[in-house]
Amino acid sequence: MLYRLLLCSSKFLKNLFLKKYFYAIIPIREEEEIQVGGFTQMADWPSFKPLPFFSGCHIQTIAGMFFSFGESPPSITRFVHLPDGEKTTMEITTPEGWKESDPTVVMVHGLCGDHFSPYMVRLANRLSDVGIRSIRINLRGCGTARGHSRKMYAPDSSDDIWKALEEIKRDTPYSPLTLAGFSLGGNIVLKMAGERGAAAEILLEQVIAVNPPIDLYSSVALLSAEKIYDNHFMKYLREDLDFRHSYYDDLPPIELPRKMTTMEFDEFYLAPQAGYDSVTEYFRASSCGPHIPHIEVPCKILISKDDPIVDYTLFEPVPFPEKVELVMTEKGGHLGYLALPSKESGVRWMDDLFMKWVG
Known about the structure:
Elements: H1 2-8, H2 11-14, H3 57-66, E1 76-81, E2 87-93, E3 104-108, H4 118-129, E4 133-138, H5 158-171, E5 177-182, H6 184-196, H7 200-203, E6 206-210, H8 216-225, H9 227-247, H10 262-273, H11 279-286, E7 299-304, E8 324-329, H12 349-358
Parallel strand pairs: 3-4, 3-5, 5-6, 6-7, 7-8
Antiparallel strand pairs: 1-2, 2-4
Helix pairs in contact: 5-6, 10-11
C-alpha cells in the first residue's frame, strides 16, 4: 500500500521510476557502517538497514523529503541583526518547564529550506517532547526572514550563524548549546567550527552535521547533473530571486535564462554577489573541507556512501582531528535514512541517531 502511494503521490516522484532511476528501488544487500579515519564506530547503536523496497539512494532521498508528517511546533520569531545591516530570524520553541540551565539545540537548514523543512520540524517536535529547547535558524531571506535581506544566503554564511549563537549565549549563558546543520547547513556549521577553532568551545558543547557537502564544487556538479534534483532546486532559486528583485526597489530587474542549472546559477549570480570573480573561487572559499582539521569542539558527522549529492570519497583524505567522529553508512541517500525498524530505532533512523547524539 505504501509502495503504491509512493508511485502515485506526485509527478515529481514518478520521475524516479523512469528507466534511469529504476535500479534505485531494487532491494540490495544491507551493509554495516564502516570505520573511517580510525574512529570508533557506534557499538551501542543498530546499523542502518534500509526499509524494504527503499534501498536505492534516490528513493531514500525523495521519500525522506516527502513522507514527513506533523505540524511545526509553536515558536517565537526573533530577529538577528547582522553586521552589514541586514537581518535574519530564529524560530525558538521552548517546551513547558524548560529552565535556562537546560540544553538547547540550534539547527541550520539546507539549500532552499527554512524552519519549515521536514527534518527541522520533525526534530523540533521530538526535542520539545523531551524538554529540550530548539532554535531553528533561517538563513538570509528564508522562512520568516523573507523580505529582511537583499542578499541571498550562501554557503559562506558561517559568520551569520556565529552572530546568532552569540546572541543565544548572551541571553541564556547557562544553557549548553548543540549546533546542528543539515546538507548545506552542515557545510556551514563545519566551516564555522573550523574557522573559530578553540573559540567555538566558548559557545558550543558540540556540533552535528548530516550529509554535509564538504566540497561544494563537487556537490553542485552532481546536483546539476541529476535533473530531478536540479529542476527542483532551480524552481525555488528562481522564485527567491524574483521576489528579491521585485521587493527591493534598489535591486534591478533580472531575468534568468529559461534553461539554467544550479551550477550556472551560482556562476551567474551567487559568486558575483559574494564578490568572487569565478564560481570555482567562490566554492573553494565557501567549502568546509579545508576547515575540518581545525575543529576543536566535539563534532559528529553522518554521511552515506550512496548520497547522490555528496561524494563520500572526498572525506577519505581529510585529516580528521581527535574530537571529530565520522559515521558512514552504505545506504541512506541524502537526508533519507528510512530504516527497517528495530528495538532501538524506528523508521526515521537519522532522527533517532540525532536524538541519541543530543542526549
